[in-house]
Queue: 3 jobs
Job 1
Amino acid sequence: MTQAKQTVIFFDLDGTLMVNPFDRAVWPVVLGEIAAKSGLDEGEIFKLLVAESAARQRDESSSPVLSMDWDDITQTIAARLGISLEAHVESLVRENVAISSILDNGADVLRELNARHRALVVATKGLAKYQIPVLAALGLMPLFAAALTPDTHHALKKHRAFFGDWPDRTRLQIMVGDMYDDDVQYPAGHGFKTVWKRPNLDSRLAAKDPFARALLYPYADNQAVQADAIIQSLQELPAVVRRLEQAVLGFSD
Ligand SMILES: [Mg+2]
């Protein structure tokens, strides 16, 4: 029998732990083809794609999986523009996984965090078909106990269902990510501790410790919930996790 996990750390991927091939190798091909066939500007086309995904995410009757399915979204927009699209997002991701990269020496951070009482779990809004090939190519999969994507429990990251029974099986849940809504606001609403990654803090905030930064940060008017800690790099994460564990569990490693 495996030892019960006390802490689960949920990791966002894009912009937090890795850089995927979308910006450098997927969007240029997809947008280039749609632009050539439609005459529209690539920037305008990208806005249409993002708006379609956002509209699907807001629509609770829409499938959480389809709202992040860039193949379905690009085909839908192309059809709306009266053109056919040959480029295939999933194939482009797989063909270009080699240009992905790990941020902040993240693999070493994950190894440092690895402990019997902790589970490290991927929590990404990207679909498995786009994210797992990248994680595998980067050699990160063996460092995680599980990978949660919208297709795992048919929920978006903002939904409690996304996280399955991990919160029920652990005493401390920590979300680590770079997006305010998905990685701070919603997980805080589920009772998770939140560690917000903000790489470019001003020098005044950067000089503070991650917990003080979270108190002093100039949140926007629509950012009502404060993070528990703000880190500039994943290198700062292990110390933050230990402090949260000491406070909540009464022990760490
Ligand atoms: Mg992110």
Note: The beta strands are 7-11, 18-19, 101-102, 118-123, 146-148, 172-177, 193-197, 229-231.
Job 2
Amino acid sequence: MKYISETATIFTRYDKNIEGLQKKARNVSEDVVLQKLADCLVHGNEDEIEEIVREALVTRDPMDVINKGLLPGMKEVSRLWDEGAYFLPQVILSSDAMIAGIALCEAKMGRPVEKKAKVVTHTAEGDIHDLGQVIVNALLNAAGFEVINLGADVPVDEVVEACRIHKPVMLSGTALMTTTMTAFPKIAAKLKQLNLTIPFVCGGGAVSEGFVTSFELGIWGKEASQASGMAEDALSGLSWTEIRTKWNG
Ligand code: B12
């Protein structure tokens, strides 16, 4: 019978490993408070994040808090995941902290009483990665658009039906997986069949410009910050082809 002589490596405290890796997270800002915010996100500390976001919002613009603190922090989380350092539990904690932080920024931005026009937003069928969509929602709201938020994992027909009912100036889609982004051309084809030529801005880590511009109505959204500018263009009467020409290469 064989006996194992070295047992030290059999049981691994992943939480202890992660403590070390978190210390290796890169600094993302020279602003002490924004750095504290990014660190808090990397540690997935939902309890503390609210206090730090409130502190940051005292003297900073909510957009800066999102773009210079929360987003770079989440990029570090993505990097740790890509390097195999983080597992699902850590990423879930970080994304919950991110959502809590964005909600506070959104509340601070305030919402104009009169809405300019409707924009339908969704995350693709089968996909629960909704952080990009949450940011897009916050920015569109802040820019005065009425956001019809369908949430995540939305069936193709539900998206099409929402467009038929609400007649939005723009449709937004987010997909983080190669398996789910295939919903976008299906939605676009169904909209075309109904003669609903709504500019359909598709973003999310999985989608590329080449993919999105390969189907009619599709416009590639690289950064969430483009969403309100694109919606303004749609509101001013630019067609999906004109918006694509303006924003895509
Ligand atoms: C966070 C995360 C999760 C979280 C999601 C929490 C949430 N509420 O979103 C949790 C832990 C739940 C999760 C689960 C899973 N995940 Co995950 N996850 C990630 C991770 C680490 C970060 C993604 C993220 O949120 N990025 C930050 C956001 C802000 O980026 P974004 O959405 O792309 O948005 C930006 C732009 O694209 C743009 N944008 C987006 N939408 C729009 C719209 C408009 C209009 C505009 C203008 C712009 C725009 O603006 C934003 C920036 O400004 C990535 C790794 C990575 N490197 O990306 C993996 C990743 C996406 N996950 C992956 C996988 C496989 C999964 C799981 C299947 C794992 C599992 N085995 O269970 C499940 C998915 C279950 C499902 N059915 O969806 C894979 C996908 C692989 C692929 N290409 O198909 C990735 C790439 C990891 C990897 N390298 O393998 N995940």
Note: The mean pLDDT is 89.
Job 3
Amino acid sequence: MKHATLEKRMRDLEYFGDTRVLTETWSVVRVDGRSFSRLTEANFEKPFDARFHEAMVAVSRALLQELSGIYAYTESDEISVLLPREWRMFGGRVEKIVSVASGLASSVFTHHGGVPAHFDARVWLGPTDTSVVDYFRWRQGDALRCSLNGWCYWTLRKAGQTKREATAALEGRSFEDKRTLLAEHGVTLADLPGWQRQGVGIYEETYKKTGFNPRLQREVWVVRRRLRVEPELPLGEEYARFLRRLLAGKVQS
Ligand SMILES: Nc1nc2c(ncn2[C@@H]2O[C@H](COP(=O)(O)OP(=O)(O)OP(=O)(O)O)[C@@H](O)[C@H]2O)c(=O)[nH]1
Ligand SMILES: [Mg+2]
């Protein structure tokens, strides 16, 4: 068979979807570690591990840079990357976006975390600024809930309870009950580092610095951009205001 004929036959059998993100709509790509409960139990400190978190921040930076994102938010084993509304990389093809995002996340995490790991990825679409603000408040709410549950569960396990006993002890307990339980074991929720409680935001900010202008032969102020890793994100309405400024491109150091 001629090469050109074979080429055509095989190309025709390549099977892919043509779903694309919508124009004039915000997109978020979210990656999530696959089976990380098992992976972290064998390799990382419980309930939270700084080395694990640093690997997640390295992945967030790589995703922001490679996908030209505006904002990355990471908590637990997931990262949400907000893409600009006019974003059209890969022609907006969802299949390409999710495969590139999960491939990149897997390789960067494996490199920085030191254990082979892989991620799944999905795309979320936000028709309005308000829906994007709600999205990130939703993920932050998840972070707060998971942080409290993780701390309670592992505090009980470390105190000698079995998997079943710890799970049963937390079943149906209120936020206040869980906070009290932690306090009884000497853990104050409010004193935990921000990255464990409410996740971390990473975004580009502008800042001013002095530079020498050779034409004017004097020091001048110049505006530069850098990635900022914010471990103490605001909560609630204040977080919403921060996100709205970010969407409007008005975040400065
Ligand atoms: N030890 C440890 N575990 C962590 C840390 N951050 C996240 N995890 C764990 O990562 C897991 C994330 O949960 P999920 O994404 O719901 O569960 P999963 O096992 O990854 O399952 P799939 O995502 O469905 O594949 C939880 O078990 C968390 O406790 C950490 O810093 N240290
Ligand atoms: Mg996971």
Note: The chain has one domain: 16-197.
